[in-house]
Amino acid sequence: METVKLLPIALNVQDKRCLVVGGGTVAARKAQSLVECGARVVVIAPAVGATFSTTEPRIIHVPRPYAAGDGAGFALIFACTDDKEVNAAVAREAAERGVLCNVADDAAASDFHAAAAVRRGDICIGITTSGGSPALARHLKARVEESVGAEFEQLLDVMSARRAAVKRDGGQQDNRAAAWNAVLESDVLELLKAGERERAEALVDELLQLRNR
Hints:
Blueprint: E1 17-21, H1 25-36, E2 40-44, E3 59-62, E4 76-79, H2 84-97, E5 100-103, E6 116-120, E7 123-127, H3 134-147, H4 150-169, H5 173-184, H6 188-193, H7 197-212
Parallel strand pairs: 1-2, 1-4, 2-3, 4-5
Antiparallel strand pairs: 6-7
Helix pairs in contact: 4-7, 5-7
């Protein structure tokens, strides 16, 4: 089967209604990921497992099997049952309604794949193998987590706080790019990693001023 090239995107699901069909471990993981991104989640399943949060206010459990029509009014749908026929029915309804659907363990039937995510504050790095090997995706995630530490979150904070000033005073786009490259090629990241944030910020300000005169 020809491999489908996926388009990497980052979806804003804040306060969006998302449906998870299924009550097992995979469904719990999908529901939790959605909640972490601010979504309002409806879970349809006769029962949910111990991995589900029973106190999370953004998760509403509807304790019954999936039925036709349940896909109305959702921004995203996840079919996560262990019944292929039910998952297929969920996917068909999603397609009829024009709603993107992810089908657990069936990459070909899915409109999108949920990437294994590494988060450092507002930094999000997504890893997907196009459904070919979730185990490899998890392995790669672990390696990225080792390489991208909390200092990158601090670096983003420092750079974001100065972005408007650099854009205002930095002249042409090439000059602004050179300014940021100077920061990224400096010792700023190592200073942040060592807990020297004040020195790191001072160095950033110095580099930006030197580059933008």
